[in-house]
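Re: the request from the purification team.
They wanted to know what the chain is likely to look like in 3D before they choose a buffer screen. I agreed to run a prediction and write the result into the notebook, where they can find it.
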Amino acid sequence: MAKEPGSGEGLFAVRSCEPNNAFVVGQLPQTTPLYLLGTDASQTCRAFATKITTEDLEAGHHFSFTGLRIGKCPNNSWRLAYIHGEKPPRYKLIKNHSIPSVVESQEVERQIRLRAQDFEKDDGEHPIKLSLGPPRIFSLPSQAKNVYLVSFDNLSGAKDPTFFFFSQGRIELIHGAAKLVSTFTLSDETYGHFQFSCRVGCGWHGDFVVQFSETTFHVVMFEDAGST
């Protein structure tokens, strides 16, 4: 589920943003101010929390949603909302990623393939079978050298790419099968927004956001409301 705000800050998934039908996943006190974060452009727009509703979207599982009063926010692609006090957050989409040299890319790929057996699997909700084709590798802003986001085509039934975080030789699996929606900076921190769908024996789907540092990453938002 979406990260509940702790010190007055938090990210929430936007499930609809029509003028009379806008809401986020999770529970927020009424009149809480939020900022919608643009997916197509580095824009923010202020909104306010309204009524909380609870729905039974899957047998035995209840999901809470908070309505939004979005005022005059333009009809843009808003997929995330952020609690950040009275002033708009410093928000910027990362459109142009730096790509490592051929030599660096080959070394990153080599190291991940050496450990492929640690990650590849035939079972589970997100099976992994790395393609033999070259991965997509790019660096993230404000990160040290040799820190990369890496994705391989996934030849398993999961279909969506497999994402790794590579930090100076350290390799971490971000997700076995997901799609990268956007990368962005928010209040000078770097994030990645992903969407996932379980295509093998289930109907799980949702969003998650990770925050990157120079040595690792951690999940700051996860929600799967509407899964079957």
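For the purification team: Residues 9-86 form one domain.
Please add any questions underneath this entry.
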